[in-house]
Each structure stands twice: as C-alpha cells, then as structure tokens.
C-alpha cells in the first residue's frame, strides 16, 4: 500500500516536472490578435470567405493574405470589429448581399408537363425533360438550394418555390453555386427591384408556360425614369434586365409590369441575424449519419 | 448441366407471355415521321436537308462530325416540313426532322448493294455499316462501326450476339430470332469478318428455348458459331455480365469489352448489318414491342424510325384502364416519358404502358441495413453506402467507391425492402462525378 502511494506520487512529480518544462520550452506562440478575432467571428464555418472555417479566416486576416471584409455573414459590423482589433481603417466595404430567386413560377402559376415522383434533387429532375415545368429555365422546385444553405435561410414555400429569409441570408453564395438553373443571384441589400424571370422565349410561349413570365412587352423599359431596365438579348430571345447601377428603387416598372414578373421588396437591413433557429433539446448534431 | 450465368442479379416476373407468341406486324407507315438528329451515343448529327426539300426513303438526312457518330436516314419518302426541338425518349429535347409522307415509298439511289458480299474486305464492311447508320439496337445505341474499328495490339477472340432480352415485357429480340434467324447468323458472319475473328457466340436465356432451337438450326452450317443457353436472370443482357457468363472473363472497371478481346452486339444489330451489306438498306426500321397492363392488345411491330408512340398504341386498340406510366424501353432500365407524342428511335426496343396498380408508388423508409442491395448488385458495389454518400453530396468519396461502375440495372431498387430509390441517388452521384471531370475533347 505504502509502496504504491509513494511510487505513484514520485511518478506524478516526475511527469509534472517534465510536462512543465516542455510546455515552456516548446510553447507555440499564438498571435493574440488571432485569439481576439476568433472571439468576434460568427463561428458558422461556412467557407464563404474561401478559407477553411472561421479559424482559418482569422489567421489569414492576421497574415494579411485575405481581405478583412471577406466575411459575408459578419457583414459591416464584423468588419468594424476586425478593423479595431487590427488597428486598421474601415475602407472599401462592399454592401451586404442576399440571394434573390429569379423565378416566381410556383404551383398555380407555372404549367406542369408531368408529375415528378423521383428523389428531391434539382440536378436529378433536370435529366427528365429539363424538369416537370413547361418552362425550361425556371426553378425546378426540388430544394437543392435549401439543403445547401448552412444558415437555414432558405425554406421551401407552399407554392413549391424556395423562400429566402433576407434576415438570415448571409450572402455566402452556397445556394448560387448549387442551383443548376443558375437562377439564384446575390444582390446588394440596397437594390429592391428585381426582374424575377429569366425565360428568354417569345411572349406567347413564355406566357403559355407560366402566368408570371416576362413577356417582352417593353412596358418597363418605356416607363423607367432612370433608363435602368432594358430588354437584353439572351439565349434564343431576350429578357428584361435591370441595371442596378442606375436603378433608384422607384418601383414604377414593378407596378406597370402586366404579368408582375418584376417585383419590389420592402427595404432590407444591413445586418444579418445570425441565430439559426433550432428546436430546443432536439439533440441533433447535423452529422447526417441518419440520412 | 448447370447453365452459365453471372454473380448477383434478381429474378423478375417476365410478363413476356403477353407478346412472345404474337407474330410481328409491320406497323402502318405514318403520315408524318419525326426523326431526332441524335439517336446514338456520341456527337449529335447536323441536318443535311432544309425545310421544303423532297427526300426519298433511305436518303441520308443527318450526319455527325465526330468519330463516335452515326448518320441518320429518312424512313419515308416525302417532304421535310419542319426541323424543330422536340422531346426525345431519352429525356431531353433534341432537334427533329419532320417529314410528311407522300406515300410513294421511293428508295433513294444510294440504296443498293455495294457489290458481291462474298468479296468485301473488312474495311469495306465497316464502311457499309457506318454508312447505313447502324448503332447498337439493344438500347445503348453505340455506333456499330466504332466498335469494330481495329485497335492496335488487340485481337478479337469472340463476337457475342446478345439475344438475352432480360427486360420484362419486351419480346422484340425474341420475335426477331424466331422470324429471321438466318439474317442474324448472316449478320454475325459479316461482323466476324469485319473484325477478323473466327468465333461467334449467340447467347440466349433459357426462357426462349424455341428461339434457341431455331438459332441452332440456322447456325448449323457454320461450325464456328455456337448457341449458348444462359440461366434466366436479370440483368443477364448487360454487356459485362454477359461476357462473364459466356467466357468467364471479367471486364475491368471502366474498360470496354475490347479489353478482354470480346465484342458484344444485339441480335437486332446483326440482322440490320446483314440487310445493309446484302441489300444496302440503311437502318430505318426496327422491331418494337408494345406491351404492359395499360395496353388493350399488346403486340410486336416492325416500325419505321420516327413513328410516334401514340400511333403504335392506337394500333394496339388504345389504352385500357387508368394509365400511370408510359415507359420508353423496359420497366427496369427504360425512361418514363410524359407524353405519347414521342418518336420511336433506333434504341427503342419497346413501349411499356402500366396501369396505376402496376406502377409501384410507395413511401421511402429509412435503410434497414439488410444488405440485400449488396447481395444482388451485379457490379459488386455497395449501393446503400453510395446512396448515403450521394445524400451528403460526398462525390469524391463516391468516386473512390467505384460509383462509375454502376450499370444502373435497378436490381438494388427492386430488392430494397425500405423502397429506397437507390438508383436515382446513384445516378445523381454519377452525374456529379462526371461534371467534376474536365470534358474530354
């Protein structure tokens, strides 16, 4: 008994001394600014900045290899904090962007050619006659963007189309990259008027396929006081496109558009709400092992 | 003696009795044919005619640029009335040449025998096959002349003709073997001559013993051609599985059958080649089975390429009952189409129409890890793991797990007790892996 206690105590003392010395001798110096930055980072590890997570971004910012304003979820407020920690000036900040869906042809608006019964995946459904809709350029409504969103900002709406929560959207670009139809677009929060149709077919075909299609009537073009919206040739035809540099958000085009393919949304705030709503005590770690 | 087969696979209810005893009927030539400009694997064709032009039967109307390409011919004589985008049974939109039939059935001048078939050399036979626009008629539609092109350092040891027809409902190849056995054997001999090979095998499943005896009679004169009887199992007709059953050789993953010195062709391809070599006729018609619970009087037809599905279905007395699905091809590997206004193409072996009760529609449950899909997979993959990778978008991991060797036979879905649509997830993974690769020029 006594021998055991003494030998354990001696071993403890020896290991303690060795560990104590080695921790001093081999200490890794961490830039205190990296630690400070990690405290203010959102911690979502979304990868929107192009770095391996928030820690990677913090190190890259201190090393000066990445633009400190590159964190889109953090937005302007984070940029100000980073600038304060690094002791630099806040300059050339780009405004916050959110994802806008350029299609309104949900169930009830768009004509369907068939009922799709396969797996929920936009890439898969496009292999079947370019999706169930008669319109071949619009949203195919299988929710790949919603699953790609790391912030839970995209939910599938009742009409089958994804709905972007502009307060939760951080502009991380993941859904834009995922969308096989390329109809999600990052737009600055100061731009409130969007043409929500990319169908370039002639008016008759476009209208036959979808009630809210751009019918190339040029009413928006004729009524725009800023000369900001034009019919632009694209694909085999043309489609209305807004020049965001000129648009003043007056909303006249949205009011005059006969098919309501152009819409104006309420003003958006510059700040993101970084709270991912999760049912309490769900215990889900999002490991996807159950999938 | 135990009949040869492959490892894995499933036993399906064939439903072949609906049409296998019915003699093939030449389908009426339609007033308009819709001929898609892409009916083969490889570069699509460009039209050689313009709207308003008069064309003759058998005239070449489309030609591709690439090496892996096959020309397209008019299947009726008449006038080109439109060239526009239409639905293709493969699930895409393809430019189609629409020809209004003038009913004269005039052959083009180019349709004539190239000379005495006995004197043609290998290169000339390949050229005739290429000019006739012959592609693999089993469904994959790989241009036939490309398959026969000699590859440096590779000797072809055997040509296997695929008369297996393992898809349920489809009996087009079965009828062809019963009605034109001597054409098939003649075609096989031309193929063997064009690739310089002296061993021919005709493989038939043991549910078609009548075809086996007829083919044996037809091949009796040629002592280098044998008929092999295989066990009835799905997917016996798949190229790699067929080679394993006939020769015991395994084709390496990602390689062509050429790697083991074997060429596989459908029996229909062989018959078309015999016609092309001896008469000069291009590929403008094929055997098509129209069957399924949603068809009033199922039948086998000899159909001109470009005939719309609905004209064949009308010949069968129309639909019966409430229709759920129209499938271009067989129910296992065919593509569901949403309209009957689609044309028959070179790769259409059948049209299957299913009623609501026959088309399975069930909720997908969680995987119960029973490993049935692994047992039946003829490509020796782990379908359930691949599906999990696809759900996580782990494409690199899926590629490492050999997802590209999947032959999309659907055996895993058929055997899955949780009703998981494994094949759709795997197809999605293959699509993503292909998209991540730089495009080969």
Explain this structure.
The complex is a heterodimer of chains A (291) and B (441). Chain A has 291 residues and is of the alpha+beta class. Chain A has two domains: 32-86, Electron transport complex subunit B, putative Fe-S cluster (3-methyladenine DNA Glycosylase II, Chain A, domain 3, Orthogonal Bundle); 97-264, Alpha-Beta Plaits (2-Layer Sandwich). Helix content of chain A is 30%, strand content 12%. Chain A has helices at residues 2-25, 32-40, 53-63, 75-86, 122-126, 144-148, 174-178, 203-209, 219-223, 252-256, and strands spanning 97-101, 154-156, 162-164, 184-188, 193-195, 229-234, 237-242, 262-264. Chain A has a two-stranded antiparallel sheet with strand order 1-4. Chain A starts with a helix and ends in a 27-residue tail after the last strand. The relative contact order of chain A is 0.12. Chain B is of the alpha/beta class and 441 residues long. Among the domains of chain B are: 3-20 and 116-279, 3-Layer(aba) Sandwich (Rossmann fold); 372-435, no CATH class. Helix content of chain B is 27%, strand content 21%. Chain B is built from 13 helices and 17 strands. Chain B has helices at residues 122-131, 144-148, 172-179, 181-195, 209-218, 239-247, 267-279, 309-315, 372-376, 383-391, 395-400, 411-415, 422-436, and strands at residues 25-26, 32-36, 45-47, 54-55, 60-64, 72-73, 78-88, 92-101, 158-163, 200-205, 225-230, 262-266, 285-291, 299-304, 323-328, 335-337, 350-355. In chain B, the strands form four sheets. A six-stranded mixed beta sheet of chain B has the order 1-14-13-17-15-16, sandwiched between helices. In chain B, strands 2-8-7-4 form a four-stranded antiparallel beta sheet, with no helix packed on it. The longest helix of chain B has 15 residues, at 181-195. Chain B starts with 24 loop residues before the first strand and ends in a 5-residue tail after the last helix. Chain A binds chain B through residues 113-114, 117-119, 121, 123-124, 127-130, 136, 288, 290-291, and chain B through 87, 91-93, 335-339, 361, 366, 388, 391-392, 421, 424-425, 427-428, 431-432.
